[in-house]
Design goal:
The chain is an alpha+beta fold. It has one domain: Gamma-B Crystallin, domain 1, CATH 2.60.20. Helix content is 14%, strand content 32%. The N terminus is likely disordered. This is Peptidase inhibitor family I36. Keywords: Signal. It comes from Streptomyces coerulescens.
Length: 139
């Protein structure tokens, strides 16, 4: 195999591993650090938790990872509360459907909230973004 083919093959393998890593919750370590959205199995940010560093197209491929009630349960359709561990100028948005679609609920950075009744145990995807502190409709 010539050097160019070796280089291309190695580059493709590296890119594939980076894309696989960034598209899942593999970065979750069970510690809700700054710039993460953290979902909990129980209300009042209790029970098992998963921490997300980025947008999640679906919660149905992820599992609550820390000890406590709900550990190893699928996150999709099982979260009851959220800690949006972002600065106050960011918003965490939780969606009813995968793919960031359907009805959604917005939470300002720095807030610990119970998901509203219609979304509790009905979460499917999430994202966070710079909002300038805006949390109402149209943000």
């Amino acid at each position: 195999m010539n050097r160019w083919a070796t280089f291309v093959t190695a580059g493709a393998a590296a890119l594939t591993s980076v894309l696989a890593y960034s598209s899942t919750a593999e970065a979750a370590n069970g510690v809700c650090t700054a710039q993460e959205s953290c979902y909990y199995f129980n209300s009042n940010t209790s029970g098992s938790m998963i921490d997300y560093e980025g947008d999640q197209y679906t919660h149905h491929d992820d599992y609550f990872i820390t000890g406590g009630s709900g550990q190893n349960q699928v996150v999709g359709n099982n979260a009851a509360s959220l800690y949006c561990n972002m600065g106050p100028l960011f918003t965490c948005q939780t969606y009813y459907n995968s793919g960031w679609s359907g009805d959604s609920f917005k939470t300002l950075g720095g807030k610990r909230v119970n998901l509203p009744t219609w979304l509790k145990n009905n979460n499917a995807s999430s994202k966070f973004y710079y909002s300038g502190g805006c949390s109402g409709p149209g943000c």
